Structures are given as C-alpha cells and as structure tokens.
Amino acid sequence: MTDSSLRLPAEWEPQAAVLIAWPHADTDWAERLDEVESTYVALAAAVTRFQPLIIVVADATLHAHVEAKLQAIGADLTRIRFVELPYDDTWLRDSGPITLRDGNRFQLTDFHFTGWGGKFGAEQDDALIAGLVDAGVFGSASHQRIDWALEGGGIESDGEGTILTTWRCLTQRHPEQSRADMSSILRDSLHAKRVLWLDYGYLEGDDTDAHIDTLARFAPGERIVYQACNDAGDAHHDELQRMGEELAALRTSDGKPYTLYPLPWAKPIVDEGRRLAASYANYLIVNGAVLVPAYGDAMDNEAARIIGQAHPGREVVQVPCRPLIWQNGSLHCITMQLPAGLIG
Fold first, then answer.
1. Does residue 184 surpass a pLDDT of 60?
2. Which residue among 55, 108, 214, 236 is the one 20 to 30 A from 137 at the CA level?
C-alpha cells in the first residue's frame, strides 16, 4: 500500500545541496583525469554560487588535492562539505539516494545498484548511500533499502505523483517482469500515483540503456524538455521523432497535453571511432539556476536558451561537459540533488 504522505519531489523544488563524487586515478577516468577534473571544477564553482555542495572523496590525499584546486579558482569553500568514502565510479545520479519527503520527514530510498545491469563492478557504489548515512550526512532521515535494480537517471518526477521512465532501460534490468509489474513496483517504492512509459528514444554511446534523463525531462508548469534530432540523415532521427510523438500523446493528470520543448541536435562527436552521447537534456536544476551541458558545438547556446525558457526565472549557466561524454554520461549523470531540509 502506497504511503500517500511521502512523495518524490521535482528537481526544481528547493534544495539543500548537490552531491557529487570526485574522479581519481582508480576510477574509469584515469586515462583523461586532467580533462574531466576541469569539468568537475567548473561544476563545483557553478553549484556553490547558488547552494551547498557535498563532495565524496576517496581519501585524505584526494580531499586535499580537490580543496586546493577549488581554492585556486575562488570557489566558495564555505559551501562545500567533504565526505571520505570508497566508490567505484562517480555517476551519483545512479548510485546516490532517491529522496522522498513528507514535510520535514525524509526517506532515503536505496535501490540495488547493479552497474547498469552488470556492465561494470559496483559493490562500493551500491554501498555508498549506507556510507553517507553512517557519516551523518542526512540527519534523522530514514534509510529504506529496496532490493530491486533502479538508477536515479532512469526516472523523472513532476513532484505531484507522476513518474516518467523508459521501457528499454527497465526491461533490460528486469526482463522477467511485465510493464504492469514494474509500474506497480515504481508506484509503491516511489509513492507515486502513476507511471508514464516511453517505448522510443536512445542515444549511441549511452550505456545506461536509455535513461530518461538523457532523453526527456519534466519542467515546471506541465512542460517536458526533450532531446530532438532534426537531421534526417542521422541514425537517431526516426527513433527520436517517434519519441517526440509519444511525448505529444502523453497527458497530464488533468488530461491535458504537456507543453513540449524540443532541444537542438549537436553534430556527431566521435572519439576513437566511437559516437558519444551528447544530450542537452542531461542538465541539472539548482536553486535559482539551471546548469546546462556545453559540448563545444554550434547548438550549445540555442540549447541553453530553450532550457532557460522551460525554466523561467532561473539563471542559465553553461558547464563544459565534453570530457564527460567520453565515459558515456553528462552533467545530470554525475550529480544528485538533495531536497531542502535533508542535510544533518
């Protein structure tokens, strides 16, 4: 039975902090560590303009290294808290807590993190939430472990009981379960009223099996921002066209169509023969601003403009994210927002 008093807040609701884990030489970033650290430094500087930032670091040596880097660029260190914990990788959208709230009561929902269906080792990442709880980061919030594979990047919440997700991802995680089975689990575990599914949409170079946060995002005022492709010669064109049609057919809980904001398509970015997933939909909302990925493409500014339109009243800040897509993710994937009141 769903506890209707708890709910999954929308990302645009007030936040206490953003949570990240810093890349280091024992993560998959080792080969291009300097490049990716430049993105993390820019991200930390951007977040701390608006709110606190919690940085997970592997040890005291990395802590000192990161603090020195951030001090050198003038980041507001008074807004940064470091927590030393082991981790396999830095995709905290997927290994971090999905936080439900009822007023000042919080539940850290801790789904089984399997390394995106067993593609990568994930034992330390799967224990990350428990480690943060033990470190006292979350005050009196309860910790609810759920032995079912789900990543935070695989779901979108409008804060009012609607969850948006993709069939391609969740059927890969749970091939033995029907859509009805999974809808029921999502409603119960996330205390939601309904689940909306997309059957179409994918990006080459994305190893999450089509996480929703690379494709379509809820925005306030019953809007949906989504990654479109207007290049008829691109391999993504037909699939993303069909996804756009699916989004146009969705209805709000009041039976109205959503207002859609299609995002422009970046030119193909290829690295050592491999197409990378440069999605503009993978942006992060913080207090008073929206942080938007930039890839060094001619469409960067137009994407930022459209995302700003969908999130009126927020400053739009571009963050250079080309180094991130080398490892198949972007800005939203490396962050997890924490709702206001949660931090102990």
1. yes
2. 214
Residue type at 65?
A: H
- 48-75: per-residue pLDDT in tens? 999 999 999 999 999 999 999 999 999 9
Tokens of 54: 């919690």
The H or E element spanning position 41 is helix 33-48
Is 198 part of any domain? yes
**Taking a C-beta distance cutoff of 8 angstroms, is the pair 339, 14 a contact?**
yes
CA distance 294 to 289: 15
State the DSSP H helix or E strand holding residue 53, giving kind and residue range, or none if neither: strand 53-57
Domain count, the chain: 1
- Residue 11: the pLDDT is 98
Tell me whether residue 8 is in a domain.
no
Read off the pLDDT band of 2 (50, 70, 90). Answer: very low
Residue 28 lies in domain: 15-339
Task: Average the pLDDT over 187-207 and give the result.
Answer: 97
Question: What residue spans of 49-166 are helical by DSSP H?
Answer: 60-72, 92-95, 115-118, 123-126, 128-134
Q: Are residues 337 and 286 in contact, defined by beta-carbon separation less than 8 angstroms?
A: yes
Q: How many CB atoms lie within 10 A of CB 30?
A: 11
Q: For every residue of 224-289, which 3-state class applies, written as one string?
A: EEEECCCCCCCCCHHHHHHHHHHHHHCECCCCCECEEEEECCCCCCEECCEECCCCCCCCEEECCE
**What three-state secondary structure class fits 196?**
strand
pLDDT digits (tens, 9 = 90+) for 248-297: 999 999 999 999 999 999 999 999 999 999 999 999 999 999 999 999 99
Residue 229 · residue 241 · CB < 8 Å: yes
Burial group, residue 167, by CB count within 10 angstroms (0-12, 13-18, 19+): middle
Task: Say if residue 25 is exposed, middle or buried (CB neighbours under 10 Å; 0-12, 13-18, 19+).
Answer: exposed
Query: What pLDDT does 214 receive?
Result: 98
H or E element in which residue 102 lies: strand 98-102
Residue 130 placed within a domain: yes
Q: From CA 320, how far away is CA 295, in angstroms rounded?
A: 6
